[in-house]
Amino acid sequence: MNAPAGARTSHAPTPQQPGPTVRISPINTAPSTGTTPSHHVEPQWWPAPFAAAPLDATVLVPASKSLTNRYLILAALASSPSTIHNTLISRDTELMLNALEAFGVQLERTAQADGSTTVRVVPPERLAAGPLTVQCGLAGTVMRFVPALAAVAGAQADFDGDAAARVRPMAPVLDALAGLGVQFSFHGAPGMLPFTMDARRLEAGADVQIDGSASSQFISAMLLAAPALPGGLRLRAAEGPLASPDHITMTVATLRELGAVVDLDEDGRGWSVQPQRIAGFTVTVEPDLSNAGPFLAAALATRGVVRVPFWPATTTQVGGKWVQILQAMGAQVSLGADSVLTVRGTGPIRGIEYADASELAPTLAALCALADSPSKLTGIGHLRGHETDRLAALQAELGKVGVQVTVTDDGLEITPGPLRPGDLDSYEDHRMATAGALLGLAIDGVRVENIATTSKTMPDFPKQWAAMAATAANPAAEGSR
Q1: Which of 94, 286, 359, 449 is catalytic?
Q2: pTM (two decimals)
Q3: Distance CA 450, CA 162 (A)
Q4: Which of 107, 241, 421, 428 fits a 20 to 30 Å CA distance from 383?
Q5: What gap in Å lies between CA 470 and CA 226, rounded to an integer?
Q6: Per-residue model confidence as pLDDT tens digits over 209-241
Q7: Which of 72, 130, 136 is closest to 103 using CA atoms?
Q8: Strands 262-264 and 282-284, bridge-based pairing
Q9: Is 359 labeled as catalytic in the residue annotation?
Q10: Residue range 152-168, pLDDT digits in tens
């Protein structure tokens, strides 16, 4: 594969022949009304495919949401146009694209012959200052990253999101911006959506302390905006744990990759970013390794084989941990010279003790439910503030299929038991939905509520999952391509 000049070396597919420039039909970005029982909406139940035989599938995973939205923010702040190959098109990234357009960023999408999307990002000479409105949906990267972008723009902006977004923590990043002179007014609970911000009196050169215990996105938001802040930024994490430190590492690596100067304190809890306007860039986004997790775990759940092409040899994605996790649970895992990761389920699934699984935890917990011994997951207390309280949700939903789950201060203790079918709620959380799908492969009679919530990061998940499951009945099938 020959990457374009100046492009990041990547194992993600690089378009060979550009197709016509088109406006792809957007994913629905309207506010969700919710489908959990508390919203009193009639559930939409998806019968999860059951695999009565081992799988033999190859799955093409879409691009990383985490990397896509980081690149989009930095492209909006660049001094010249950027080109992002293999851009994820999903609800979360559509919300980000819509937000950037509100700030005057021009976006040109090109559909490639291989089905991927290339986005050319043309930043304005100066970002629009509004007044403007940003709809965040349930996208953490939008609700946390874009206020920092609005601060750089010196903008007046209204922010709101889905009903479930209004209970997600926001205060640390807003407090950090307030330390730079940004003013906020809240239209509900303080420190939460919806709010109005006014950054017309943005200050330069301040040292900022930030609480990163509830989400790494607070720190990433400030770091991504830091090169464009007047005087740069000196950022220091407050005392206490850091949630999902791998995502902070990803942010720093992405900034450095594109030429930003970021210095890290010896203890890993402080960052100094020099002021500059980074140059436009060309990159190819890696596959989403977190979203690959449920498919790879399916190999263990069915004692089958699942392959994921374009797996990067090195990565900053937390999903890269799947290799060691699945090996520890009994799988054979190999990465070929052709960049195809192959996972084979070879026998019983072993329980595991694992720390800092981050966003992998729902799928990992579902796999632990299928194990032959107890498991203990730690370092994930911050998951209470994700799309839903994932610890409480996993306790409730795994309990429905016969698994005993104890919630601790920072994790879960999972004791498998005799499994039974059940109707599993998704809580408007894409990772709860995919965890339910994994359980359905091994337990005949599982239904998942609102599987469409997976469109947040993987719009074709139900179709791809069904195609993979179909290989259990027909091992000669090509797989879920």
Answers
A1: 359
A2: 0.85
A3: 16
A4: 421
A5: 48
A6: 999 988 999 999 999 999 999 999 999 999 988
A7: 130
A8: unpaired
A9: yes
A10: 999 999 999 999 899 98
